[in-house]
Amino acid sequence: xxxxxxxxxxxxxxxxxxxxxxxxxxxxxxxxxxxxxxxxxxxxxxxxxxxxxxxxxxxxxxxxxxxxxxxxxxxxxxxxxxxxxxxxxxxxxxxxxxxxxxxxxxxxxxxxxxxxxxxxxxxxxxxxxxxxxxxxxxxxxxxxxxxxxxxxxxxxxxxxxxxxxxxxxxxxxxxxxxxxxxxxxxxxxxxxxxxxxxxxxxxxxxxxxxxxxxxxxxxxxxxxxxxxxxxxxxxxxxxxxxxxxxxxxxxxxxxxxxxxxxxxxxxxxxxxxxxxxxxxxxxxxxxxxxxxxxxxxxxxxxxxxxxxxxxxxxxxxxxxxxxxxxxxxxxxxxxxxxxxxxxxxxxxxxxxxxxxxxxxxxxxxxxxxxxxxxxxxxxxxxxxxxxxxxxx
Length: 392
Hints:
Elements: E1 27-33, H1 37-53, E2 58-65, H2 69-79, E3 83-85, H3 88-93, E4 99-102, H4 109-118, E5 123-126, H5 133-146, E6 150-153, H6 160-170, E7 177-185, H7 207-210, H8 212-222, E8 226-234, E9 239-240, E10 243-244, E11 250-257, E12 262-268, E13 277-284, E14 287-292, E15 298-303, E16 314-317, H9 338-355, H10 363-382, E17 386-387
Parallel strand pairs: 1-2, 1-4, 2-3, 4-5, 5-6, 7-12
Antiparallel strand pairs: 7-13, 8-11, 8-17, 9-10, 11-12, 13-14, 14-15, 15-16
């Protein structure tokens, strides 16, 4: 099993970032493309990360761009950026913008990333990395050709509890993994009377493009590469008030990992009652782990080596003894939240820039996720098993 122990691990992909740090350079100008929900989250993270983690690089909120000059100026004033850009090209080309966060629609990711990498600028891109597999492959090629630091925004796997789960697995605490079950289920479109919107148009905005990548990323981090899979994907509510739905509501897949473990995953945006159903169960030869993001500061651990009379799943509350908890809070059980995951992510991105060492997940790791999504669609169309590396 590949080493997935910590964020300090060198997840080298053959590229070495060329962003050079001088001994007196401690500030770095950050530009964020898109100021909406994720743009705000990244802006808050970049403003806080230096104080939380005492990073060697201290982000300066240099510029934000959005769909119109008015909205960009509104985001600038609200989030504390120095300047607003009328479009993303202006932001990418600006000399004071030294690192770029892409938080705009998926259809724009490739062009922005390619322009940034052409200038040797590091890029943190929100998932899904590209609007298509072709886009994702081109983005990896541009990233590795430039040698600049690159990272994909999979934030949920960075909770202290999930980082601790990765540590337990890597250290062999639950033995060899034999089975994995994961889900990312929410109910924001469970009501068929919810109006059609941008979320119901385009493959990248469907459940397989929006929710599935997070749990697939978790499966890769916790268990390892997927070898084969078979999937079923469907649109349950084909029409909604205001229009026809052109993407998927839910999907499921069975898979076999390269290490021999069996797995299954389920993804849905119509899972009535589920608000943040990012959850997994992992069975090993010595124990088992359970996690649910709706209770993100708890991990459930079962160990076979305990006496029969007390053997059972034990609830472990996240605390200062677990990865990346202490910088936020000194009290066990007090908990971390969604925004803290983005701040941890910002720390990792800055570390990649500062050290010149790739930090997982790189663009190549993001491509691996997108290849699994593409294989799932191919399987659903053909009603057949797919071997990774052969899907289109």
